[in-house]
Description:
This protein is α+β, with helices and mostly antiparallel strands.
Amino acid sequence: MFSRKRGAAKHVRATDAAPSKALADSLASDGEPVAPEFGPWDSRFAPEGVQRLDLGSLLIPAIEGVEVRVQANPEGGVEQVVLVDGESALQLGVFAAPKSEGIWVEVREEIASAMAADGVTPREVQGRYGVELHARVNTPDGPADVRFVGVDGPRWMVRALYQGAAASDPSREGVLGVVLEGLVVIRDNEPRPVREPLPMRLPKEMAEQQQQQQAEAAGQ
């Protein structure tokens, strides 16, 4: 729901707005990051002994009862990740960002502008990770609540979109909130344009299953 701008990107300096916990910790000691209290985690601080689904740039903690729906292209590149728990869903995205400044403020403004252009009036609400964006949007099935959460980390940003019960009432996010705080971001050392999606891929088992399904479909 946001587009890349042409030309020089407008970033948010650390003095413009309160950075997220992950980014604030990264800036706290002259660029030397400190371990945050909770995630999404930069890979260097990820707790050990946790079973996770490995999607490349994003590791998702495996929690009983949470269904993970992954949409991938024929090459196995992940294009969409949605987690479902009961009446709630959480869509995840992870993007490249500068090392020392966050981009969620700018991204949030663009999402709000896009909504306003569609006649939707979003609200800014203070949440666990800072300012969230809440709105009721029109869908083919009728009006629905959405809630955008952004987390700025060192050279990455996680964008989380809650839908369903967890969007209309944040106190009902339940285990999906646990998933969000347990995410691990693996940012490679490749120089990437700001806001470019970090590469995600299917785990080996899922990729093999997809290839088998494609082969069967081609045979029919």
